[in-house]
Amino acid sequence: MASNEQPGRSADASARGSSLAPPPPPGGDGNGVKGGKRWPWIALVAVAVVAVAVIFLLPALVAQRGVVPIAGDESAPGIGDAAKISDSDPRADAEEVLQRYLRTRARLEIARAGAWAEPQWSLAADEVAKGDRSFARRDFAEAGALYAGALQTLESLESEREPRLTAALAAGAAALADDDGESASAQFELALAIEPDHDGAVRGLARARVRAEVLVHMGEGERAETDGDLEAARVAYGKALALDGDYESARGKLELVSERIAEREFRRAMSRALEALEGGRLAEAGEALEAAASRRPDDPALRDARRQLAAARRQSRLSSLRREAGVQVRAERWQAAAATYEKALAVADDAGFAREGLSRARERALLHQRLDAYLADPTRLYAAETLADAERLLANVGTATAAEPRLAEKLSALNRHVAQASRPVSITLRSDGETEIVIYRVGRLGRFEERRVELLPGSYTAVGSRAGYRDVRQGFTVLPGAPPSPVVIRCEEPI
Q: Can you give the pTM of this predicted structure?
């Protein structure tokens, strides 16, 4: 067997080296995690083939050396027992340890150890190559020791996989915290070699790869901020944060510069608002305060300015209503004036002008209503009670001022109607000298052939009666200034 082996590596080792080569790093091109998506499946298939070769071909290879391997022996000694293998058969012991090494190597190749376990991975392979050479020299004890050392190295790597992943992730995060994108990329790539598609490593590598560009934008933002160009600084920090949404430095800088812009715009808007308030430009002041509120809605200065604006608007509204009511008063539109004063009191219930004005407007509106009722139907004054009420009204009102020409006109008209209703009109009554004449609400007039009486304007009923004759009734109306035709009352129908 020794005469057929090549120097530096046995035929068995050559077969192992060619069939158990480590899979390529993530991505299929060795450049990171963003390569093709099919390489994990290809790698798994390749490693599965290698595992099958180890399980089924390894015993035949070892058998060529004249030793029957103990394949699948689960009671094989552990790492600490490697030095305690029985000395009774050094060759068999060496072959046993070699089998365990190959099985462990197959598991680690599935775990892609070749991409993350250097230099231990290559050192173990070198130890096995030395063991092969010792085996070729038939120095089985030395070969067994070398195989055992290589096995122990791989078993250590197998137990270190998770700690190495944790350490790589931590180192990558620390490098990111130090803005060292290159080192962070290397650490996250290592983590992805240990565990492909690890979410934290994928995100970390993506952040690390743009860190240099992020830092360029951060520098632009800091220079713009130093120059006082806050808008440009905000744009630059925004670009940095868009590249890496988890970069707290960019987020903090963006928040600070945005706050400074908001503060500046708030103060500008407040200045415009106060200036407009002083100038009485209330609409402009309101717009400016809305702009200020969009920047700092809870600022105490904004609340004070809003109170000032509300007071100014209230006063402006009251002034407007006062002017409107004044126009209505001068036009003697008392109902409208009363409604305007009520609006003013709704704005400010302590507005003295509105309280006084409302009382007078209501009084005057009622006066005009009463006057209009008399003037709309002057014949109502022909009733004694109504005439007396009108006379009392005229006496209480007195004379209208020059500021109320409509009232003066109505008073004058009512005075004329009252005077006419109070002035008796002479009328002629005719009869036959036999008929007794009575006029309701006037009295008994007796018998006569013709008589003149003075009657106030109004409607009257005269009744005639005569023994042996049917009574007669005669209604007539007395109008002011126009005596009626003679009223004839005779009882002419015998009973």
A: 0.49
